Amino acid sequence: MEDLALSGSEIRKDYRTDSYSIIAPKRGSRPKELGEEDINKLDISKCPFERSNDSLTKELAKYGEPWEIKVIENVFPELSGNTPFGEFSAANGLFSSIGGYGYNEVLIDSQNHLDLFEDFSIDKLIEWLGVLIDREEVLYDRKYIKYVQVFKNYGGLGGASLAHPHTQIMAWPILIGTMDAESKIIKKRLKETTKCLYEELRDAEAGRLLVDNGNFFAIAPFGSRISAESMIIPKRHVSYIGDLSNDEKRDLVSALKSILITNIKLYGKHAYNFTIHELKDDPDFHMHLEIYPRLSTFAGIELGENVFVNTIAPEEYAEMFRNTLAVTK
To answer: Which of 17, 67, 109, 195 is surrounded by the most beta carbons within 10 Å?
Structure first.
């Protein structure tokens, strides 16, 4: 079955979410649609994340003096703590809605506009992870918050509106979308087999293994929706990054850095997204970090059917990755 995907195409079901993807390697020979992401042509003086523009944003926390990492309120939030929270209501049985209660924060990764996240030292990345945990603890303590999402958008195709290195933190009052689907599938499999789905993957996905650095391993998931998609998973069952040991934190950021650098070696400078999937108060959940290189644009199939077309078979990506693997320090 997997060999067929390398010679033709294959529709795969993703065990994480029950979503579908079309593995279509032959479409990868189409003309290149994207050039390299270039962040160096922007006017730094107008960036609201610069130290000289501190007055343009509301500071929530800072680390170092003068600051090296800072957390601010998102000036253009999707959710707001000032919005009343309530249960879903439906008008005429058709229109279901709930108030957009929640919080949006931005972690400014560095004071240097031209720094690149993948170039940060391991110690710097551990500091970055510690700040994320600090903010998650604050947000999880707020009323009604059920899930805190951490994600990074890099490059225009990745949805970033500013080049200055930053990470976004979003606190939700409900569990919806991918996280809701993952949580339900984990619980269903646990009930049926008494096994954690993600603890099985080290062996089940051995042919698509990317990295194994002690406390974490990374794979190219069988049902990858995005070309060169990867997932970093702790070997120990842990649901929340705040529960990681110091050694585990180091191995997590080391794996992340290694994947980002190796992807650049493979595909050149490109836009990407990554997100941390975790639940603080759900011991059944198994945390993981997903990385999505943005090597092509979404089109009618993705938007019309919610089925993603992946032009690089995960097996092919895993083999190229292992042959190119960057060692991080």
So the answer is: 109
User: Which CATH fold would you assign to the domain 1-28+176-329?
Assistant: HIT family, subunit A (3.30.428)
What lies within 8 Å, CB to CB, of 294 at 6+ separation is 155, 157, 158, 226, 270, 271, 272, 273
What superfamily would CATH give domain 45-113+115-175?
A: HIT-like (3.30.428.10)
d(CA 139, CA 281): 13
66 preceded by a cis bond (ω within 30 of 0): yes
Collect the ranges in the chain with pLDDT lower than 70: 1-8, 26-43, 88-92, 326-329
Q: Where are the beta strands (DSSP E) in 39-181?
A: 59-63, 69-73, 89-91, 95-97, 103-108, 147-154, 166-172
Among residues 89, 83, 183, which one has the least CA distance to residue 143?
Answer: 83
Q: Where are the domains of the chain?
A: 1-28+176-329, 45-113+115-175
* In contact, 260 and 152? CB cutoff 8 Å: no
* Cβ 262 vs Cβ 321: under 8 Å: yes
Residues 226 and 16 sit within 8 Å (Cβ to Cβ): no
